[in-house]
Amino acid sequence: MNAGRGGGRRAGGFSLLEVLLVMVLVAATGVIAAGVVGGGFTRMELRGSAREIATQLRYTRARALDTGVPQTFTIDPAAHAWEAAGGRSGTIPESLGVRFVGAREVQPAEDVGAIMFFGDGASTGGRVRLSRDAAAFDIDVAWLTGEVTVHRAEAP
After folding, report:
1. How far apart are CA 47 and CA 136, in angstroms?
2. Rounded distance, CA 98 to CA 132, Å?
């Protein structure tokens, strides 16, 4: 009988290294599958940027409603940069196309777009389009209500 250490028979089961290797393979397969199912990593970047801009537009509207003072969201498509109320600012990845359509009366400079939100929630309205290859997202701001919506669009 081999009751002591170093016996001839090994207990059944898996080693820690084998379990870790399987976990790494499963995780890597999951990441790749998420990229394929979700439209790829570039679309994830596009979708994330659209959500970020929509969030900042909603924040700017909320600040206008809260303070009763008009607040402005500006976007510079050439510089891939935006500025929201409260000194918030950010950039848009260079890999994405940026286009703005809105009221010229509130533009702070040539080729820089702006959407102004008023104390009652209304706005000057506008659209920010982010695109890459054949995919695009439109971030629309309704002029009457100031509502911000995001939806998929066809890139030109």
Report:
1. 9
2. 9
Sign of the Cα torsion 151, 75, 66, 121 reads negative
- Tokens representing 3? 């009751």
Calculate ∠ Cα 82-88-89, nearest 5°. 30
Residue 31's CB is within 10 A of a number of other CB atoms, namely 11
Percent of the chain with pLDDT over 90: 67
Radius of gyration of the chain (CA): 25
| DSSP state for residue 8 in the 8-state scheme | S
The CB density around residue 48, as the number of other CB atoms within 10 Å, is: 12
Closest CA to 127 of 70, 42, 53, 55: 53
Q: Which of 98, 100, 114 is nearest to 49 (CA)?
A: 98
For residue 69, the model assigns a pLDDT of 97
Cβ atoms of 61 and 149 within 8 Å: the answer is: no
pLDDT at 37 over 80: no
Q: Which two tokens stand for residue 72?
A: 């402005």
* 0.90 exceeded by pTM: no
Burial 121-145 (b: 16+ CB within 10 A, else e): ebbbbbebbbbbeebbbbbbbeeee
